[in-house]
Amino acid sequence: MSSFSVHVDSEFESIYNLVPKPEQKVVKPPMYKSRHNPLAPIPFSTNKGLGPNIGKLKNNADPIKFLRKSTPSKRNPLKPIENNFNYPAPKPLKAKVPSKDERPVVGLFTEKNFVTANAIEAILAVPRVPDASAPDYLKKEDFGKVPKYLGEVKQEIEQENEMIDAFVRKQMEAYEDTPELCDAMPEEERIVLIEKLKTKWDAVNKKYQVLCMHTLYEGHQKARKEAFEEEMNGIEADLEKLTSKGPLMISRG
User: What residues form DSSP beta bridges with 115?
Assistant: First the structure.
């Protein structure tokens, strides 16, 4: 017994499409109706009662005769402006620049002797009368006397000096009570030390002069040169201390 099956493919026409299908009625939902009255005026509006007239000309006004800039209206008429501003007086102008055709006056000479004229004017001048209202400082009570504040300043300076002397005296007393910590270097020992330092400086200087004759190409040669310079500077500082005037003190132990 054989069985027969029909393969239905969506890409090809199906035999089931030949069977008429019943029409389906579309059921529409009820129409929406607002519960508010559309003809009622808008609440909290500034144009109550003017809604039907918006966009319309009132009182048959001419659309060409509209208000333009700076045109007074019935509600806001233009008020006359009081102009109380006074312009300041014009400043005097500077003299004009002379033109190219104007020539200065040249070649004028005078025979007046200004030295003689000044001398005659000084001789014939009336002496000035001193002003009686000006104070005469020569008749003051404290004229020629030392001011009081200078005496106070001098007294303060003396008090400060006394305090400093007392402090130094106290420090010296405390230093005298302590045992001596230094001894004076003998003169013979100082002379020997100076000769040895000079001999050492000559030896270092000889090495330094030989090194300076060569061109410094490497870093170690430059380092040796700086070491010689530092050593000679130290020897010179020691020689300066040893050759200074006065006794040379050496600390104990």
Answer: none
